[in-house]
Amino acid sequence: MPRVCFTLQVDPARLDEYRARHERVWPEMLTALAECGWHDYSLFLREDGLLVGFLVTDDFAAAQAAMQARDVNARWQAEMASFFLDLDQDTPDRAMRPLDEVFNLAAQLAAQTGETP
């Protein structure tokens, strides 16, 4: 299953509040993410506000589209948008740009042995 990693920039002045909002994400939002194919989804936050997201999904574009069709996502994005810098009139979920994976240990080890990762 493909892995996706993306970055966004959280306002460094609001890191504590951003962390607090993610301690108890709305149950309806958690359910929607799972139902829309966001597996093993994690967010990592650096002290300068760099946010790194990671998830596993069959089709990232489809997983994003499925979430964008959910009312809870629209409400969550509206609540969270003010935490981010440089969104250019976009919502955080639409500003996600996947990074190119340039190394995967499991894939290279599997290639050596002829196995699948």
Automatic annotation (TrEMBL):
GO terms for biological process: rhamnose catabolic process. SUPFAM superfamilies: Dimeric alpha+beta barrel (SSF54909). One of its GO terms (molecular function) is racemase and epimerase activity, acting on carbohydrates and derivatives. InterPro entries: Dimeric_a/b-barrel, Rham/fucose_mutarotase. It holds the Pfam family rhaM. It comes from the Bacteria. This is L-rhamnose mutarotase.
